[in-house]
Amino acid sequence: MHKYSSYKTYTPYISKYDPCPPMKVKSYSTPINLYLGFQPMNLPQYQAREALQKGTLWPALYSPYEKVKMRKPLFSKPQTQPELQPEEEEMD
Amino acid sequence: MWLYEKKLQYPVKVSKCDPMMAKYLMEQYGGADGELSAALRYLNQRYSIPNEVIGLLTDIGTEEFSHLEMIATMIYKLTKDATPEQLKAAGLGEHYVMHDHALYYQNSAGDAFTATYLQAKGDPIADLYEDIAAEEKARATYQWLIDMTDDVDLQDGLKFLREREIVHSQRFREAVEILKVERDKQKFF
Ligand SMILES: [Fe+2]
Predict the structure, then answer these.
(1) If we measure between CA atoms, which residue out of A31, A36, A38, A84 comes closest to residue A55?
(2) Which residues of B belong to the active site?
């Protein structure tokens, strides 16, 4: 059992000569398939309806995406506007 | 042989009149990392892959066709009632001239589908690694498509498709695990 975050962030170099307002934090997805290895037997399952809605039968394989602008930097100070909590998901 | 069920794998609902989104969605219809590309790639590679993995390629290749059908439904809904003027404003003027309101296998930039989008190297590891990369690229494309629309119903369908790419990648990674074990060694229990 370990925790993983479904995306990672980094801070690119910002020049004072850049023509546009800088994007201070960049992010990229790190879906569950990077961590799971061979799927263990007998993992808990969603009920059928929820499984269809989620796109997978197993909570352990659910690795959702939110729009970039809603993402919060994982390793820097909280920003002024309210944003989503970083996703920390439990994995069996 | 295939059996056809006359329904979509996941319900498609489009709530915003946005023909330009149809143009973007064509990336997943006839684009390099799109659903047609995926279906043809897997269903073709399965002839020259070790037995344990053939069924997986058949299953996923088949599912990709059901995704293609969902994307087609989205594109159709977004364009069927658009006037030539609206299509022109959405960057689909050339598409209208060539195809009227018909769908066509091309990417978001209007380039026609080509078999060079997929490979079959005959080497199982090379092919499965290509398949994993294809799934990750399709997943990323769905992310950028989700970024391009604020229609939550369309996003819902795209989020379903993105999650399926994650599961497919997981299965291809497991297929590599199956093939890399010392299969010729005698097993002792
Ligand atoms: Fe896929």
Answers:
(1) A31
(2) 35, 64, 67, 135, 165, 168
Residue B12 belongs to a domain? no
What is the structure's pLDDT at A5?
84
ipTM, two decimals: 0.82
How far apart CA A58 and CA A60 sit, in angstroms, is 5
pLDDT higher than threshold 80 for residue A88: no
Dist. CA B189 → ligand 1 center (Å): 36
Furthest-apart CA atoms within chain A: distance in Å: 56
pLDDT digits (tens, 9 = 90+) for B127-142: 999 999 999 999 999 9
* pLDDT tens for each residue of B110-121: 999 999 999 999
pLDDT of residue A69: 57
Identify whether B6 is part of a domain: no
Per the domain annotation, does B1 fall within a domain?
Answer: no
A window 12-31, beta carbon within 8 A of B: 29, 31
Q: Which tokens sit at B91?
A: 């960057």
With bands split at pLDDT 50, 70 and 90, how would you rate the model's confidence at B188? low
User: DSSP letter at B141?
Assistant: H
Residue B8 forms part of a structural domain: no
Residue of B nearest to A34 (CA): B170
- Reduce the secondary structure of A39-77 to three states and give it as a string: CCCCCCCCCHHHHHHHCCCCHHHCCCCCCHHHCCCCCCC
Q: Looking up tokens 């149809």, which residue turns up?
A: B22
Task: Check CB contact under 8 Å for A31 and B10.
Answer: no
Domain count of the fold of chain B: 1
Two tokens at B157? 């369908």
Q: What is the model's pTM?
A: 0.87
